[in-house]
Amino acid sequence: MKIRANLALGGGLTALALFVGVFGPWLAHTDPIMDANLMNAELPPSGEFWFGTDQQGRDIWSRVMYGAQISLTVGVVSQLINTFIGTALGVTAGYWGGWWDDFVNGLTNLMLAIPSLIFALAIMAILGPGLTSLLIALGLTNWSYTCRISRAQTLAIKSQGYVQAARVLGYGDIRIMFSQILPNTLGPIIVIATLGMGGSILAEAALSFLGLGVRPPAPSWGSMLSDARETITIAPWLSLFPGMAIFLTVLGLNLLGDGLRDILDPQSRSRR
Amino acid sequence: MKRIALLSTIAVATAGMLAALAPAAEAQTPRSGGTMRMTAPYASSFGSLDPHASGRAQDGVVFLALHRQLYRWDSAKGLPVPELITEAKSSAGGTVWTFTLRQDAYFHNGRKMNADDVVYSFTRLMDPKKGFVGARWVRLIKGAVDVEKGAAQAISGIRKVDDFTVEITFLQKVEPGYLFYNMTTSILAKEEAEKADWPNNPVGLGPFKFKEHVPGSRLVTEKWEKFYQPGKPYLDTYVIQIMSEAAARDIAFRNKEVDASILGPVQYVAYGRDPQLSKHLLEVAEVFTRSMVMHNEKKPFDDKRVRQAINHAINAKLIIERLARNKAYPATSWLPTTVPGYDPALQSYAYDPAKAKKLLAEAGYPNGFEFEWTTSQNESWGLPIVEAVIPMLKQVGITVKPKVVEVTVLTDIAQKGEFQAYIGSSQTGPDPLQTLRCFHSATPRTSCNVSGYKNADYDKLLDEAGTTEDPARKLELIKQANAHLYDAAPVWFFNYNKAVLAYQPWVHGLQANPTELMHQYPEDIWVDASSPAK
Amino acid sequence: MASFIIRRLLQMVPMLAAIALLIFLLFSVIPGSFATGQQDEGLGLDMAVVQRMRAELGLDDPLHVRFGKYVTQLATLDLGISFRSRQPVADLIAVRLWPSLQLTIASMAFAIIIGLPLGFIAAMRPGSWIDLGSMVVAVSGLSLPKFWLGILLMYLFSLTLGWFPSFGYGDGGLYHLTLPALALGVSPMALLARTTRAAVLDIMNADFVRTARSKGMNEYRVVVWHVLRNALVLVLTTIGLQFGSLLGQAVVVEKLFAWPGIGSLLVDSVFQRDIPAVQGCILVITLFFLVINTSVDIAYKLIDPRIRYT
Question: Which of B117, C6, C49, C145 is most buried per CB count within 10 Å?
Answer without folding.
Answer: C145
